[in-house]
Amino acid sequence: MKINYCDALVIGGGLAGLRAAVAAQKKGLNSIVLSLVPVKRSHSAAAQGGMQASLGNSKMSDGDNEDLHFADTVKGSDWGCDQEVARMFVHTAPKAIRELASWGVPWSRVKAGTREAVINAKKTTITEDEDRHGLITSRDFGGTKKWRTCYTADATGHTMLFGVANEALKHNVDIRDRKEALSLIHENGRCYGAIVRDLITGELEAYVAIGTCIATGGYGRVFKQTTNAVICEGTGAAIALETGVATLSNMEAVQFHPTPIVPSGILLTEGCRGDGGILRDVDGHRFMPDYEPEKKELASRDVVSRRMIEHIRNGKGVPSPYGYHVWLDISILGREHIERNLRDVQEICQIFNGIDPADEGKKGWAPVLPMQHYSMGGIRTKPTGESTRLAGLFACGEAACWDMHGFNRLGGNSVSETVVAGMIIGNYFADYCLANDVTIPTSTVQKFLDEQDAYLNEILAYNGSEDIFKIKNRMKELMDEKVGIFRDGPNLEAAVEELKELLVKTKQINVKSKERAGNPELEEAYRVPRMLKVALCVAKGARDRTESRGAHYREDYLKRDDANWLNRTLCTWPNKDDLEPTIEYAPLDIMKMEMPPAFRGYGAKGMIIEHPESEVRQAQVDEITEKMQAEGKDRHEIQDALMPFNLPMNYKERNERAGDK
Amino acid sequence: MSIEKGRDITISVLKFNPRSKVSKPHFVDYHLEETPGMTLFIALTKIREEMDPDLSFDFVCRAGICGSCGMVVNGKPALACRTLIANYPTGKIQLMPMPAFELIKDLSVNTGKWMDAMSKRVQSWIVDNGGEEVNIAKMEQRVDPEVANETFELDRCIECGICVASCGTKLMRPDFVGPVGLNRVARFEVDPHDKRTAEDFYELIGDDDGIFGCMSLMACEDHCPKHLPLQNKIAYLRRKLVALR
Ligand SMILES: Cc1cc2nc3c(=O)[nH]c(=O)nc-3n(C[C@H](O)[C@H](O)[C@H](O)COP(=O)(O)OP(=O)(O)OC[C@H]3O[C@@H](n4cnc5c(N)ncnc54)[C@H](O)[C@@H]3O)c2cc1C
Ligand code: SF4
Ligand code: FES
C-alpha cells in the first residue's frame, strides 16, 4: 500500500482549496492539494462577472461598507443564511481583494474623469474624483445597494485563479493533479485523510493527514442543463456523505440562471437584459411584459427563469434537437452598442452557434434557456469550517454549506466566498492541524484502501445489461424535469422514487473494457452512484420542504414559511445499502440574529408566514441600536453588541476606506 | 419536434495507450449525424457515450476558458470545445493529440505538468524582493488603469499549450520555455507589484532555451485562441535583455 503522509490535505484545487492550502503552508504545515485536473483548469476559471467586496472606491459605490454588504447578503439568502458567517464574510472580503491585488490580480481600476454608462437603459454620465484614481473599481450586480462587484474585465475568475495558484506554487504547496478522492479515511468520529485514485495510472493510494479539507466545488452536473464545468459532479460532497457521519445541508437550494445559450450552456451575461435586450417566444412575441408588466425582462433571476419555463410549458417554446428554448434578442440595441459593450456575448454566439447577435431580425436571435447555475448546499460546517459531526474534516467554497448564501446567493458573492473562506477556514484548519496528531493504525488505512479496491473489482465484474451513460443521462433529465425551477409534491415524490431505481441499476451494468487504468467508463461507473446520492439529497430535501424560499420554489406551497421552516436541512447516509438519505433539521435561532426575518424587498408582498419571534427580536435590535446611538457609539460597537463574531489572524481589524472621515 | 436530418460526418481519432503493452497508435473512424451548433465537445462526448466508452480526451469548461482541450484538428492545434463541426465543409475531421507534451492516452496530454514546471521555472508570481507583508486592512496600492489593463491583457493566457504545440523551436529544443513562458515574464515585467529588474529576468530566461531561442516563426501567435500579442512581447523582451548580454 502506498501511503502519502502530510499535515494538511486539501481535496480540490479551485479558488477555495488553493487559498486554504496557502494558509496552511504559511503556518509552516506541509500541505498537499489534490485535483481532478490541473488546478488552473478548475471551474473557478469560468467566473466572469466579478467578486463582491465593499471597498467603496468608485462614484457609484461611495459610502459602501460591511453593514450594507451584510444586509444585501442576508436579504439575498431569503433569511436562510447563518448571519454570523455572513458577518465574518463581509468583514474579510475587502481584505481578500486587497491581498489578491498584492498577489498580482490585475483588478480594473478607477479612472478619474467622466465616462458614459447605461443605467436602467438610460445614458448617464459618471464623474470619478481625482483622489480615487488608480484604486480598485467596481460594477453593478443584481441585489446590491451599491456597485460592489470588483472585476478584471470579463475574466475575473481566470485572473483570480491564476493569482492564487501561482502564489501556491511560490509557497511550495505540493499540488498533485489528476488525482481523485474516492473515500475518506475516518474512525471514531475523526477524519484522517482520503483514499485516492491516480487518474493516469489507475493506482490507488492512501493520503493520511492530520486534517482534511474538502473544496471540490458544486454539483451542477447532476442536472442536464447547467452552466457548470463538466467536472462539477459533487463527488467531494458525496464522499463526505458516504462516511455516514458528516452531513450535507440545504441540498435542495439550487440556483438557476435565465440566459445560458443552448445547447452548450455557456452563460450570456445578465448585462444583455440590463442593457435592454428582450426575450421572444416561438412566434417572435415578446412575452415577459405579459407576465411581469412592471419589471419585464429585468425582474430578478429566479422570477425571469420561472416565467420562461412557464411560457414554454404553455406551448410557446421553440423546438430544437436539444429540447425547447426561447430567444434572446439583443439586435435591437444596435450593432455599435453590441460591438462596444457586449463583445464577449457576440464572440460566444459566433463561435458556438454561428450567430451574429448584431444581425437584425430572427437571424441574430440567440437560443437561451434557464439552467442550473450554483449549489448553495454542501457539506455542513460550523463557522470555523469544520464539519459539525466529523472532527478533522473541513470544507470550503461551493462544496461547503458554511451557509452565507442561505437559499439564494447573490452574483459576485461566490468567488468572493471562495477566497474569503480560504482565508478564514484555511486558518482554522491550519490551527487544527497544528494542535492535533495523526493517531491512526495502518490497519485502518489498509481497510479503507481495500474497500475501494474491492469496489473497483466489483464494478468490473458486474455482468448486467444496463448502461452507465444511460443511467447518468436519465438522472440528469429527471432532475431537470422534476426537481428544476418549479417543484411540487407529486413530481418530487416521483423523482425520489426513480432516482432510487437508478441507484439500484448502477449495480446492473456491464463495463466493456476491464482495464483498471485509462478507462473512462469505469470512472463513470463509480462516479454516477455518488452523483445519484447527491441527487437524492436534493430531491428528497425539496420534497420534504413544503414552502418556497429563495431559489427553492414549490408551486403547491407558494409562501416562505418562517413559522415552520426557518431551519437547515441535514442529510446523512448512515448505512451503505440505504437507497435514500436520512433527513433531519436544525433550527435557525432568530433571537441571535442581527437582522430578524422580514420582507426580502422584491417579489410579491404578503408571501411570508411570519415567525412570532421576528417581531420580538426586531424590537430588541431597535432598542439596543437606539440606546447605543444616543451614547455616541459607532456602527462597529453597535454591531458587536447585536451579534458578536470572531475571526482568525488579524482579520478583525477595521477596513480602511477612501471615504473614511 | 420538427428538425431536418443533419449531415453525416466522420471523425477520425488517433488512439494509443502508451501504458499498455499491446496498444499501437492507430486511427479509428466514427460516423455520426451532425446536429445544429455541434462542437467537437458535443461530438466526442456522444462518441464516448454511444460508440466507444474507452476513448480518452479532456474537457472541463467546454466554453473556451480553461485551456484543457487543445488537440490537433486537421493538422492545426486548436481548442476542441470551441471548434464547430459546421466550419468543416467536407464533414471529415481528423484528431490527434498535441505534440510536445507527454501523451496520457488517445487525445489526452499532460499540459498541466508541463505548465507547472514552466511556472516554477520563470517564477510566475509576484516577487517583491523581500518587501514587508502588505497590510490588507489598509488601502490598496494604486495602479494606473492603463497599466492594470495592459497587465490584464497579458494575464489572459489560459496555459492551453497551443502555442507550444505550434512552436518549431520547441520541437527542436525540448527545454525551450515556449511562448507561454516568455509571455508570463512579459506579464510580470509590466506589473507594478513586481519588483524584479531586467537583470533578474535575464537570470531566468537569458539563454537559448529562453528568450534567445525563439526563431520568430510566428505560429504561436497565429494559433493562440486568446489572441495574445506573443511576437510583439517576445521581440520587446529580447531587445531589452540583449542589452545585458
Ligand atoms: C459560468 C459561471 C459563471 C460564474 N460567474 C461568477 C461570478 O461572476 N461571480 C461569482 O461570485 N461567482 C460566479 N460563479 C460561481 C463561482 O465561479 C463558483 O462558485 C466558484 O468558483 C467555486 O469555486 P470552488 O473553489 O469552490 O470550486 P471549483 O473551482 O469548482 O474547484 C473544484 C476543485 O475540486 C476538484 N475536485 C472535484 N472533485 C474532486 C475529487 N473527487 N477529488 C479530487 N479533486 C476533486 C476539481 O478538480 C477542482 O480543482 C460562476 C459560475 C459559473 C458556472
Ligand atoms: S499564449 Fe495563447 S496559445 Fe499559448 S498557452 Fe497562452 S492562451 Fe494558449
Ligand atoms: S474545455 Fe475548457 S477550453 Fe475547451
Automatic annotation (TrEMBL), chain A:
Fumarate reductase/succinate dehydrogenase flavoprotein-like C-terminal domain location is 473-602
Q: How does it sit in the membrane?
A: Peripheral membrane protein
Q: What is its EC number?
A: 1.3.5.1
Q: Which UniProt keywords apply?
A: Cell inner membrane, Cell membrane, Electron transport, FAD, Flavoprotein, Membrane, Oxidoreductase, Transport
Establish whether keyword Glycosyltransferase is in the entry. Answer: no
Instruction: Output one GO BP term.
Output: electron transport chain
What are the annotated GO cellular component locations? plasma membrane
Q: Which Pfam families match?
A: FAD_binding_2, Succ_DH_flav_C
Please name the SUPFAM superfamilies in this protein's record: FAD/NAD(P)-binding domain (SSF51905), Succinate dehydrogenase/fumarate reductase flavoprotein C-terminal domain (SSF46977), Succinate dehydrogenase/fumarate reductase flavoprotein, catalytic domain (SSF56425)
Q: Where does the UniProt entry say this protein principally localizes?
A: membrane
The cofactors it requires, by name, are:
FAD
Q: Would you identify the family this protein belongs to, as annotated? A: Belongs to the FAD-dependent oxidoreductase 2 family. FRD/SDH subfamily.
Q: What is this protein called?
A: Fumarate reductase flavoprotein subunit
Q: Which organism is it from?
A: Malaciobacter pacificus
What gene name does this entry carry? frdA
Automatic annotation (TrEMBL), chain B:
UniProt subunit comment:
Part of an enzyme complex containing three subunits: a flavoprotein (frdA), an iron-sulfur protein (frdB), and diheme cytochrome b (frdC).
Name assigned to this protein? Fumarate reductase iron-sulfur subunit
Q: How is the cofactor bound?
A: Binds 1 [3Fe-4S] cluster.
User: What domain of life?
Assistant: Bacteria
Required cofactors, per record?
A: [3Fe-4S] cluster; [2Fe-2S] cluster; [4Fe-4S] cluster
Q: Show the InterPro entries listed in the entry.
A: 2Fe-2S_ferredoxin-like_sf, 2Fe-2S_ferredoxin-type, 2Fe2S_fd_BS, 4Fe4S_Fe-S-bd, 4Fe4S_Fe_S_CS, Beta-grasp_dom_sf, Helical_ferredxn, SDH/FRD_Iron-Sulfur
Give the family per the record: Belongs to the succinate dehydrogenase/fumarate reductase iron-sulfur protein family.
Reaction catalysed by this chain?
A: a menaquinone + succinate = a menaquinol + fumarate
* Source species of the chain: Malaciobacter pacificus
EC number of this enzyme:
1.3.5.1
What keyword terms does UniProt attach to this protein? Answer: 2Fe-2S, 3Fe-4S, 4Fe-4S, Electron transport, Iron, Iron-sulfur, Metal-binding, Oxidoreductase, Transport, Tricarboxylic acid cycle
Record GO terms (molecular function): 2 iron, 2 sulfur cluster binding; 3 iron, 4 sulfur cluster binding; 4 iron, 4 sulfur cluster binding; electron transfer activity; metal ion binding; succinate dehydrogenase (quinone) activity
Which terms does the UniProt entry file under GO BP? respiratory electron transport chain; tricarboxylic acid cycle
Cite the source lineage: Bacteria, Pseudomonadati, Campylobacterota, Epsilonproteobacteria, Campylobacterales
